[in-house]
Predict the 3D structure of the following.
Amino acid sequence: MIENNETIDEFLARHADDVEEAVRKAAALEIMPRWRRLAADEVDQKAGPHDLVTDADRKAELYLTDALAALLPGSVVVGEEAVHANPASYGAIRGDAPVWIVDPVDGTRQFVSGERGFCTLVALAQHGVVHASWTYAAADDLLATAVRGRGAHLDGERLYAGVPEPGRDLRVATSHPDYTTDEQKHDLLGLRTPGVAPRPCGSAGLEYLAVARGESDATAFSWEAAWDHAAGLLLVEEAGGTHLTRTGVPFRITGGNDLPFTAARDAATARRVVGLLSGEA
């Protein structure tokens, strides 16, 4: 817990390992025992057939809510499933208290299908600034972490996004067509140009990890939900990358962004993608 006038940086210096343990335990207790073993009554729809939620999502979020709030008294938790039940709770991201931003199973459709492309996302933020993040791909036991100003790491090894290889098409993960409106699809059309190889994204968290590892060059996303983006954006930043909205300013987890936006391996790639999204390149 934060003691006396301890800062978030001081809290992280003492408790980053405890957060990691909570993330791993949530996956071990509530997610992985249900992977490839889900019963029909453990899967529900939210907004439609592509917007799924499972018992793993709900129970892992409850576990993390209890564990993280106990580690940092006075903090609040904004989780995807809790916000679905009570949309007003999302406003805590814009409040004064430290906030844990949680997506218990990012890539639920892949999880339901028995694929490996899902992860658990946790970020710690305050006043709109993300201070630390944890991205855990439980099926492959890969944990990526980032602390603002201290770099990004994958299983303890420093991550460097690097720059795209000259002359090769940019690899860009975009909002999946199943989750985009006609207007959003139109906004992304600028990426269908020579020199760019767009493809539909899977788990947003794993797409950010791919950028931070230099396996993908950029993302182009059309939605703002902080639980999908907060952890990954810090991971990319601390690996040397950057993020920009369509108006050329960084993405804000508090909302009000001009969409779509990009996270990219380097500033030049981010500007190129934003230019294509704006119809200027």
Notes: The chain has two domains: 8-158, 170-278. The CA atoms of residues 141 and 224 lie 27 Å apart. The radius of gyration is 18 Å.
